[in-house]
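Per reviewer request, we include the raw input and output of the structure prediction for the construct analysed in the revised manuscript.
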Amino acid sequence: MTPTATIDPRLCPLCGQPNRCAMEVERESGIPQGPCWCTTAVFDQTLLARLDPAAQGKACICERCSQAARDPR
């Protein structure tokens, strides 16, 4: 990712697919959402190390990428 790239908080910074973060849906729509799965998830440090520093704290990793890191096949 280049320094000038815009981080889309709706997309997973690893795979580029929608991350479906409930907090982002609420922010964007104004409609209250239940707690997002990511608020209780434990993200492996190896997975987090794959993030571009520009995306850290700006876009959620999707559940699929998080699960794949926990259960590599």
